[in-house]
Specification:
single chain, alpha/beta, four-stranded parallel β-sheet, two-stranded antiparallel ribbon, 3 helices, 24% helix, 17% strand, extended
């Protein structure tokens, strides 16, 4: 039997977002940097909470090089080899704190992730999921 929900539904045309007054004179004065403490790992992260997805055309080392200049995070796709990771880490050590290594759900994906994290411990962030 289908469930019919009779509650009132609101749409964008029904809601008015009213901006707060600000003392800032320009948008360039806005600071988007936030600090996070992760409950289980006890690690902290400070940066802008925007993440480039771990898709093979988005989560690239080239993207990470650009985004880390602005403290933005990149979830690097799982198709890079260990050698490519080592080359990137050697040439761009300042980007490693703004990266996450990706893994699929297969055992070979997990083995590759272990190798990357052993070789480059500074890249201690991990994301998982199949694309």
């Amino acid at each position: 039997m289908p469930h019919i929900d009779n509650d009132v539904k609101l749409d964008f045309k029904d809601v008015l977002l009213r901006p707060k007054r600000s003392t800032l004179k320009s948008r360039s004065e806005v600071d988007l940097t936030r600090s996070f403490s992760f409950r289980n790992s006890k690690q902290t992260y400070s940066g802008v909470p925007i993440i480039a997805a771990n898709m093979d055309t988005v989560g690239t080392f080239e993207m990470a090089k650009v985004l880390c200049k602005f403290s933005l995070f990149t979830a690097v796709h799982k198709h890079y080899s260990l050698v490519q990771w080592q080359e990137f880490a050697g040439q761009n050590p300042d980007c490693l704190e703004h990266l996450a290594a990706s893994s699929g759900t297969g055992s070979s994906d997990f083995e590759q992730l272990e190798q990357i994290l052993e070789a480059i411990p500074q890249a201690g962030n991990v994301v998982t999921g199949e694309m």
